[in-house]
From TrEMBL:
SUPFAM superfamilies: C-terminal effector domain of the bipartite response regulators (SSF46894), GAF domain-like (SSF55781). It comes from the Bacteria. InterPro entries: GAF-like_dom_sf (IPR029016), Sig_transdc_resp-reg_C-effctor (IPR016032), Tscrpt_reg_LuxR_C (IPR000792), WH-like_DNA-bd_sf (IPR036388). This is Helix-turn-helix transcriptional regulator. Residues 219-284 form the HTH luxR-type domain.
Amino acid sequence: MSRALAETGGSGSRIRAALAAVRAATGLPVTFGGPVTRGDLCLRELVGTGTGALRGLKVAAGAGLGGRVIVMRRPLAVRDYPNDTGISHEYDRAVGAEGLLSIVAAPVLVSGQVRAVLYAGLRQAVPLGDRVVDEVAARAHRLARDLAADDEARRRVAALAEAGTRRSSGEALTAGEWEEIRKIFAELRTLATEVGDAGVRARLERACERFTAVSRGEAVADRPSLTPREVDTLAHVALGCSNAEIAARLAVSAETVKSYLRSAMHKLGVHTRLAAVSAARATGYLP
């Protein structure tokens, strides 16, 4: 998988979007945060700050409010940051330069690991109620879900790339390997519909297209134009899924699935589900 895809689907754009959502949901004027790498936090994303004092700040696990959140793995809030006795104060200068007093921070937990921390704050020493803390925690949970989806997408793209490399080098895949690749392909198509980042989604779709071309050994120049959703539907038909199962996976109605399937069969010039799958493979839409 390309470095660009890893970065786009990683922390930066996801954290920025989450911080904007925190600001809108809580009404707090300042939000900031960043990824956690090898246990330490780096504050890379700032929204509503008046200085650059926090940008690039490295926060060690256990230190300050964010470091304590990393260790305790739950949201924490302070009313008067410089005078709070429940945290250490290694970062008072940077926080003080921004004038922040009331701050809440929440961990972003992915597969049991803290992957990022989100903060929101005020320049007044007032209590941050449960609603504010819950909102920040909820946005952290959503970010965790999105990062997990990105991780899975990267894993499946890597699996397709490995299979494509083997195929292009002339190494034959076993029937069992082909079946697993087809499952990965179908699931990757589904993930592409769930990923919020348009750039990541486009890269996932292009990765699928490249793999099907490699699996045939050549690109197909003249073929009917199937829509992404029609390909998604056929990818799941190839796995033996019923219309109801496909509808659940693609988050559409069963009638919509039937519509996609009818349209795909018409374009491919066939009259059955299995014939549509066969034609889609023959024209390079499916592996």
